[in-house]
Amino acid sequence: MKRAYELMIIIDSDVSENDIAAVITRTEGLATTEGGADAIKSTDNWGRRKFAYEINHKNEGTYVVWEIVTENPGLPNTERQLRLADDIVRHKLFRLPEKEAARRGLLGDGEPAVAG
After folding, report:
1. What's the rounded Cα separation, in Å, for the pair 96 and 103?
2. What's the pTM?
């Protein structure tokens, strides 16, 4: 059974602009290896943002969000690798509810979002 997930990482502010692309590619590679070749449905780079509070003596980082659809529950190897990565300040992987995943068009027939 396919499940939809959303993965967010915050890349350390000490990582140079050139190396940010490498971190993104590495993370996509982890998710693709574990979840399948077509696991990643979208990537959204939010860019550098200021934190609401200080984390590890840092005040900002680069946020990146992926929508992932896979049959592998929880992507345990990806989570483990993200926990061990020194260039990632925080990460969060959570399963999207079926209704929200369908609304986004990740599972089954999606409905377009309505603004307002």
Report:
1. 11
2. 0.85
